[in-house]
Amino acid sequence: MRKIPASMFSRLCDGVTLTGRVAEDVPTFLRYHGCPKTARHSAQVAAEARRVAEYVGENVVQAEMAGWLHDCSALFPTLERANIARQWNIPVLPEEERLPMIIHQKLSRTLASEVFGVDDVLVLDAVECHTTLKANPTRLDKVVFVADKIAWDQDGIAPYYQKLAAALEQSLDHAVLVYLKYLWDRRHTLKVFHPWAREAYMQMSL
Ligand SMILES: [Fe+2]
Ligand SMILES: [Fe+2]
């Protein structure tokens, strides 16, 4: 496989001083690249991921770290994401070609590793599927997925919020399923129903 030149990533950090502490470095990096809104959203998801992890007995440190990192690729314009993924040897699915916004979860994984030096595979995996989930998710994947849906990045309160919050009192899986079913029920009106979300829903709704 073609090696990605390290300069490609170091260039992104020209002018940014990284400390090695993700909770400081991610917001610094995002603000430097003109994404203050994503920096605020990442703080909210990190806090929410920590809260959900504590509530369901998952690792709070990994959850918070994945929350900080999950949208760290927001600096890349949507229409450039498929090309960037290919440059970084990341496979791009046909559904992602049609809706390149979704590719940010894969790009965030690579940046988490290459720019922020994270090597915890559980954290990287959770970052990579935070938008869509996937088949056979870990509990950390589910925690970060749910946290991102609770602390959503649009105005107002998410339309599924009450249902999801109530379901979380039952279990993490119930909460995950509320959001996947919300997508499933709208699959014919969505521009793309990502295959990873489809597989997760099929598996969890059995
Ligand atoms: Fe995201
Ligand atoms: Fe997000």
From TrEMBL:
Domain HD: start-end pairs: 39-152
Keyword Metal-binding among record annotations: yes
Name of one Pfam family that matches: HD
Keywords: Hydrolase, Metal-binding, Nucleotide-binding
GO molecular function: hydrolase activity; metal ion binding; nucleotide binding
Domain of life: Bacteria
Entry keyword Nucleotide-binding: yes
Gene3D superfamilies: Hypothetical protein af1432 (1.10.3210.10)
Name used for this protein in its record: Haloacid dehalogenase
